[in-house]
């Protein structure tokens, strides 16, 4: 041992040093050498170090040492983790130390029994492992508050994960409430990756002093990017796996990498991909399990244990496995498709190599040029430690609304200034004003959640406070799920989101879960259960979970643009894709054939004499009604620019403009009246200062804003008051809640999560100043065509996709509609969609202005005939006339679109406006809108 090694442990007392010897800890790990001195001195400390490097012991040894010296009467330390599964692991790791040191270590979360809770309140453990939500619950209990008054240490595990979420914003206020109870306490944050340690340290401490102790994670990571070439074996495999040869090559490469290592984690970006790949490995009878959040707790623990015991060679998993759940030793990590962000790659690859100072090895398996270039940028940035900053939620008003009732419930009558002081000490809320908090209290008062006496600036509880607090311990929005149960064994195998059940689930239908095929036997809507039986038929539909796409940051996308800029002159001078790939190999970790395959797209671009889109050059290409702006600025910037373009072009055209974005392209479907010069005019003439206003105006009628507004309003207790007892449309909800804190928070959240107004404004400034070159091109280009539509991985069997589309088509054709003439108001008929003529006409007056209405919409017909002006009827009448206009323009196609579930005239117009190659795409778009409706309908019913 060096002198530095010895020095770290000498900061600990003799009792803990004896435990170290007993446990076999002879040499401190790197984070222990760095962090034990300030931790032992009682300093607030953020420890950043790779997974498996002993962070937990780094934090807890000084805490144990302090608790041994000063036995607490109540709770001495809280260890807060974002996942319940981590609670279980932490207890197993810390119990030995507790037993040796005669300190009680216990766990508390949502599933803790009433008996255990009561026991913890009466006789608090010395160390309690818990979740952020359970901390909220503990703060309301009188005896637990007494126990918490003795608190001297709080450890926040995976602090980066919480810093970037509303759960973390809520926890930051809870930490200040703990401070009010216990006085100064040491705060310790643990993470494998943090892009901006200073701001995460401030988040942890509430702006107080914080020591940062960081191990360079990137230097300990060895990543290779591989895009497999298709082999004859892949052609054979594709037939067996009911997929294309390209996807078969991905399966084959993953299979071979797993075979080359002892224990491999295979990360994917969505649960759907995990299930789809899992079904392929099941078909090949390979020992690879599936692990994600929609599987039951029992199923997850089962695969974790089987992987730990060596029964499984690989584990297909999603982001939950990033957070250090103990699955034993991992010697390799595979990332399927680009991980999208540097922090995610480091978290995931960091799971490999749990021995001290061991390099973590990983492979990113990519699927197309965008994917490969993006992965190269991320791998290079990971190696150089260029991690994205945590996107802290600054001033979330629904979190303030959530915490005010909790404060008054736990404290009793509270002065406004005391509540303001506690809330604004929390780092994310440091700039929230008293005026804003008054406004929030006014809303809570109107909704009878708290009583706010403005004359005396006093907050009191009401009859609804207690119920609200316990129903809103979490900032995670409630989402309906159905439990999936094996009908033979009765055991739960997982869950399905409501919209999957609504749109796809019928008795007899087949789907994939846990990598296995299941046939639906029965659906019990009352109990929220789907009963299934296992089958061996390989043709099934993959469950469609709702999940936001991980946004690619602007610097990563910008580097992809830089790679293109480096390649372009070489290709123009006669170098081929392989030669350019060899040049890139000096900077990026990839196999030569992978680099050559990606560069072949750029070679095609040069050979087609199309301009190359780069970080300094935008290329606007057009074919027919499709316009693509090639712009390598990442998801959020492109989504913002896309909304500006679609809003302003839609105004010019007097109709809707279709919009799809990815990190490298903004794709628009425009009416024929829109010229390319109109698009250029928007980019060259729009005032950059107006970007935020334009986007907000565009959001006002959107389902996305209404969905967020419903979730935020629930935290204010406002939704029921505005909704009343009847159905409430998106438009009415948005209208009712405009100019309220709920509306402001919903806009803030959409901007925070999905958009980047400042950077989009700078792009317009750079275009207008000439710093960014803007070139137009007639026709589509290889790079422009390389986006989402060509890159969709057909992991679901093709025949299953076709059968789902056919099922949707048949269902809609059998649906009934009311056809009503809005010209003469005389003719009305109720019929099946399949019997509607290609261009419906009124048999009485010959008009083609025929509204297509729901079969229960007789009241709308009566209102139109009676010319009623009631507010509800007026809205429905307007929709009827909009419907008639669509049917007049598009005939039966409009009737089909509007017969779909939750697809009104507005969405039908969007669906119809898209230019498509085949009818199946039309029904896919309908299905997409139905899913969106199913996800949000519970807020309006």
From TrEMBL:
What GO terms describe the biological role, i.e. biological process, of this protein?
DNA repair
Q: Where does the Helicase ATP-binding domain start and stop, copy by copy?
A: 36-212
* InterPro entries, sorted: ATP-dep_Helicase, DEAD/DEAH_box_helicase_dom, DNA/RNA_helicase_DEAH_CS, Helicase_ATP-bd, Helicase_C-like, Lhr-like, Lhr-like_DEAD/DEAH_assoc, Lhr_WH_dom
Q: Which residues form the Helicase C-terminal domain?
A: 253-398
Gene Ontology molecular-function annotations: ATP binding; ATP hydrolysis activity; catalytic activity, acting on DNA; DNA binding; helicase activity
Which Pfam families does this entry report, sorted A to Z? DEAD, DEAD_assoc, Helicase_C, WHD_Lhr
Q: Write down the superkingdom of origin.
A: Archaea
Q: Which controlled-vocabulary keywords does the entry list?
A: ATP-binding, DNA damage, DNA repair, DNA-binding, Helicase, Hydrolase, Isomerase, Nucleotide-binding
What Gene3D superfamilies does the record tag this protein with?
P-loop containing nucleotide triphosphate hydrolases
Q: Does the keyword Ligase apply?
A: no
Family classification: Belongs to the Lhr helicase family. Lhr-Core subfamily.
User: What protein name does the entry list?
Assistant: Lhr-like helicase
State the species of origin. Natronococcus occultus SP4
């Amino acid at each position: 041992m060096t002198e530095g090694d010895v020095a770290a442990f000498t900061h600990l007392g003799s009792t803990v040093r004896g435990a170290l010897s007993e446990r076999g800890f002879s040499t401190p790990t790197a984070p222990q050498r760095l962090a034990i001195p300030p931790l032992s001195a009682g300093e607030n400390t953020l420890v950043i170090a790779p997974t498996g490097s002993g962070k937990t012991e780094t934090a807890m040894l000084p805490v144990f040492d302090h608790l041994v010296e000063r036995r607490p009467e109540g709770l001495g330390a809280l260890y807060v983790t974002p996942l319940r599964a981590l609670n279980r692991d932490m207890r197993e790791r810390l119990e030995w130390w507790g037993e040796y040191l005669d300190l009680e270590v216990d766990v508390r979360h949502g599933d803790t029994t009433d008996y255990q809770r009561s026991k913890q309140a009466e006789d608090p453990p010395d160390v309690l492992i818990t979740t952020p939500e359970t901390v909220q619950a503990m703060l309301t209990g009188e005896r637990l508050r007494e126990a918490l008054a003795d608190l001297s240490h709080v450890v926040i595990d995976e602090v980066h994960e919480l810093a970037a979420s509303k759960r973390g914003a809520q926890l930051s206020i809870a930490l200040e409430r703990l401070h009010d109870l216990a006085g100064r306490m040491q705060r310790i944050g643990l993470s494998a990756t943090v892009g901006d340690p200073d701001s995460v340290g401030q988040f942890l401490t509430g702006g107080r002093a914080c020591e940062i102790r960081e191990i360079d994670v990137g230097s300990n990571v060895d990543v290779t990017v591989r895009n497999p070439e298709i082999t004859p074996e892949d052609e054979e495999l594709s037939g067996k796996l009911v997929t294309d040869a390209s996807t078969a090559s991905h399966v084959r490469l993953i299979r071979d990498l797993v075979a080359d290592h002892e224990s491999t984690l295979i990360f994917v970006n969505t649960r759907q991909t995990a299930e789809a790949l899992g079904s392929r490995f099941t078909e090949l009878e390979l020992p690879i399990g599936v692990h994600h959040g929609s599987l039951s707790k029992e199923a997850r623990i089962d695969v974790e244990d089987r992987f730990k015991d060596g029964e499984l060679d690989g584990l297909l998993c999603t982001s939950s496995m990033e957070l250090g759940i103990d699955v034993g030793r991992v010697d390799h990590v595979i990332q399927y498709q680009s991980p999208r962000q540097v922090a995610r790659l480091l978290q995931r690859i960091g799971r490999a190599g749990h021995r001290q100072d061991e390099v973590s090895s990983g492979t990113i398996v990519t699927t197309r040029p965008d994917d490969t270039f993006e992965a190269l940028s991320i791998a290079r940035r990971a190696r150089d430690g260029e991690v994205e900053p945590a996107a802290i939620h600054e001033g979330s008003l629904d979190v303030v609304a959530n915490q005010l009732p909790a404060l008054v419930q736990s404290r009793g009558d509270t002065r406004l200034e005391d509540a303001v002081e506690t809330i604004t000490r929390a780092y994310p809320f440091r700039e929230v004003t008293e005026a804003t908090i008054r406004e929030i209290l006014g809303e809570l008062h109107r909704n009878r959640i708290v009583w706010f006496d403005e004359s005396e600036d006093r907050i009191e509880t009401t009859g609804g406070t207690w119920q609200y607090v316990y129903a809103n311990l979490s900032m995670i929005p409630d989402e309906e799920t159905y439990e999936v149960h094996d009908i033979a064994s009765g055991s739960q195998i997982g869950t399905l989101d409501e919209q999957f059940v609504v749109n796809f689930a019928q008795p007899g239908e087949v789907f994939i879960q846990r990598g296995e095929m299941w046939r639906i036997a029965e659906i019990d809507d009352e109990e929220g259960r789907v009963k299934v039986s296992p089958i061996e038929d390989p043709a099934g539909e993959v469950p469609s979970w709702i999940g936001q796409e991980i946004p690619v940051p602007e610097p990563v996308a910008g580097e992809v643009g830089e790679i293109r800029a480096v390649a372009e002159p070489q290709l123009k001078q006669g170098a081929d894709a392989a030669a350019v790939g060899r040049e890139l190999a000096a900077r990026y970790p990839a196999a030569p054939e992978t680099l050559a395959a990606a560069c072949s797209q750029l070679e095609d671009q040069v050979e087609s004499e199309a301009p190359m889109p780069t970080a300094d050059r935008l290329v606007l290409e057009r074919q027919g009604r499709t316009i693509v702006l090639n712009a390598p600025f990442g998801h959020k910037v492109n989504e913002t620019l896309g909304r500006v373009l679609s809003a302003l072009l839609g105004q010019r055209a007097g109709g809707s403009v279709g919009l799809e974005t990815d990190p490298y392209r903004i794709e628009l479907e425009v009416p024929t009246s829109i010229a390319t010069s109109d698009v250029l005019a928007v980019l060259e003439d729009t005032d950059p200062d107006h970007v935020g206003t334009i986007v907000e105006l565009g959001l006002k009628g959107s389902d996305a804003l209404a969905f967020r507004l419903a979730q935020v309003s629930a935290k204010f207790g406002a939704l029921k008051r505005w909704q009343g007892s009847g159905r409430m449309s998106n438009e009415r909800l948005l209208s009712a809640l405009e100019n309220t804190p709920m509306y402001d928070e919903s806009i803030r959240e959409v901007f925070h999560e999905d958009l980047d107004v400042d950077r989009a404004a700078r792009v317009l400034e750079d275009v207008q100043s000439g710093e960014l070159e803007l070139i137009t091109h007639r026709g589509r280009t290889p790079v422009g065509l390389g986006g989402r539509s060509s890159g969709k991985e057909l992991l679901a069997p093709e025949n299953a996709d076709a059968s789902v589309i056919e099922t949707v088509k048949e269902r809609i054709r059998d649906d009934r509609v009311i056809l009503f003439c809005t010209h003469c108001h005389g003719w009305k008929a109720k019929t099946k969609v399949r019997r509607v003529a290609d261009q419906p006409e009124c048999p009485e007056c010959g008009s083609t202005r025929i509204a297509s209405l729901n079969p229960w919409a007789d009241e709308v017909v009566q209102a139109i005939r009676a010319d009623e002006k009631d507010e509800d009827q007026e809205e429905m009448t307007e929709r009827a006339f909009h419907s008639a206009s669509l049917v007049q323009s598009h005939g039966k196609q409009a009737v089909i679109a509007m017969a779909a579930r939750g697809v009104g005239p507005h969405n039908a117009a969007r669906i119809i406006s898209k230019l498509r190659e085949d009818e199946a795409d039309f029904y896919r778009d309908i299905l997409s809108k139905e899913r969106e409706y199913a996800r949000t309908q519970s807020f309006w019913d």
